[in-house]
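thought: fold this chain, then report.
action: predict
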Amino acid sequence: MATILGIESSCDETSAAICIDGEMQSNSIANQLVHQNFGGVVPELASRAHQQNIIPVVQQALSVAKVHKNAIDAVAFTRGPGLLGSLLVGTSFAKAFALANNIPLIEVNHMQAHILAHFIEDPKPKFPFLCLTVSGGHTQIVLVRDYFDMEVVGQTTDDAAGEAFDKTAKILNLPYPGGPLVDKYAKQGNHLAYKFPEPQIPGLDFSFSGLKTSILYFIRDNVAANPDFIESNLADICASVQHRIITILLNKLAKAAKQFGIKEIAIAGGVSANSGLRDMLAQTAEQYSWNIYVPRFEYCTDNAAMIAIAGYYKFLKKDFVGQDVAPLARMIM
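observation:
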């Protein structure tokens, strides 16, 4: 029997989860509202909030799971990638907890954990599968051959898809976090109202910087001609931008599926919570006869359950690290 405490602190969510033999017993998350006043995550404020939140969040996770701290067999924590100050809080807590309780320490790659979130609940993808991992900081297509045999076959050459959503929201004067609001307004709009360019990037890589620039110039020029342009056309703008971002993602995913001859397709990361992406993925899956896998919403955004499940599979391999481990802000898969 293996009881794993998972700790996630890569950005602005402090989270703890308890996993027993691969079954999730709790997944507690504390969000940081302080960043709303700044239109984005402020690293120094994020790390301070993690210090305030981490002990109450761990206590809540233990309480919900009805597990005593002495029953924990190992601590899994996000080593990277992420904000260094935020990672340092989670890493330090995990090291202290493991040392105090004389239990093993398990490092987890945040991006691998997003993919392994698919193994928290049924249905679970069959190996090999392709996973489109999309978040505010990353956009990748990953070929997953086994739990820890993963190869990035396509990735963004500049900005991430989530960043394109957030930047669009900022241009439209929507409050932070803006990505979910773009999704909300897009449901009420016509995605054919405005046409934005699709970057011509060879292979399976992505680029979103040019799209962000075209959106900025489009809004600037139209507002100059009509100061009420955003307010009068908000839903159509959101729908059109969202449609373009999603088609960029899914066109590359379809190309990868064909290239590798794989029909097991998954999506992960914060942007996978986007309803437009989920709907268009379902349509694309029907077109290509894919089997698709999308985690429950709470397992898409940053959370400790995905860290705990990754830790569980590492525990089975006895893949532990020592007390000299340090966070890696740019940890690669």
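thought: worth noting. The beta strands are 3-8, 13-20, 23-31, 74-80, 105-109, 129-134, 139-146, 149-155, 264-268, 291-293.
final: tokens above.
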